[in-house]
Amino acid sequence: MIAEAIILGSGTSNGVPTLGIDYPPDFLANPKNHRTRPSLLLRGPQGNVLIDCAPEMRLQLIREDIKQVDAVIITHTHADHIMGMDDLRSFYLRTKRDMPVYTLPRYQEDIRRVFNYAFQEFPPGVEVPRYDLRDAPDELELAGMQIRLRVVEHGPWPVLAVLVGRFAYVTDVKTISPEVLVELRGLDTLILDAVRYRPHPNHLHFEAAVELALELGARQTYFTHLSHDYDHDIVNAELPPGIALAYDGLHIQIDG
Fold this sequence. Notes:
By secondary structure, the chain is an alpha/beta fold. It has a single domain, classed as Ribonuclease Z/Hydroxyacylglutathione hydrolase-like (Metallo-beta-lactamase, Chain A, 4-Layer Sandwich), CATH 3.60.15.10. It has 8 helices and 14 strands. It has helices at about 25-30, 55-65, 80, 90-95, 105-115, 180-185, 205-215, 230-240; strands at about 5-10, 40-45, 45-50, 70-75, 100-105, 130-135, 140, 145-155, 155-165, 165-170, 190-195, 220-225, 245, 250-255. The strands form 2 sheets. A 7-stranded mixed β-sheet has the order 6-5-4-3-2-1-14. Strand 11 (about 190-195), helix 7 (about 205-215) and strand 12 (about 220-225) form a beta-alpha-beta unit. The longest helix has 11 residues, at about 205-215.
């Protein structure tokens, strides 16, 4: 094993349960139907790399007893992927080190706008998060892991797919270029967007995700960014072999 991936959150942008909706008691009784917003932790031999900062990031990291984050990769800057970034201040308070944040240049501009206070000076005693924004390269070494970043399309928005060894995390995606598809074939583990049953203009929906998963042929594919369309145990029982729904707290071994 070269690393471990932890699904911190497997839900879509509204989370599940979604506010204002009544759910059957049987649905709510299954903890795997409770989905926080999408995020992933890569636990490497020399530290931890956080993929996106969901609104529930603090609770996700507490749940998994994660006390250290060494770097962050932001796949894109939609609210469900960045609104936990303020809680990175806790790590700054401990280390007094600006958090390395890797993302595309266009998304660095969003982070500077949304979290403008993180780049301002304050008198002593006023503590804010501090980000060291860095361009996302095609390849980088973090926490003892060789990480490959590739761009996929989330409707009109570019999104970073993250690959480590024979593992890939592809959240928020509608289309993937032929060049990237080649790198996603035949993996041990693929985490793939499958937002809902009905077609979506910017996401893979259930049927399209199943079709793509079968085409790519990972030993195990997990669907993420899931809405309340999915009743975990019922849907899992109907999926083809080698395909399953992700859930909050799922741990995955990553091999080279």
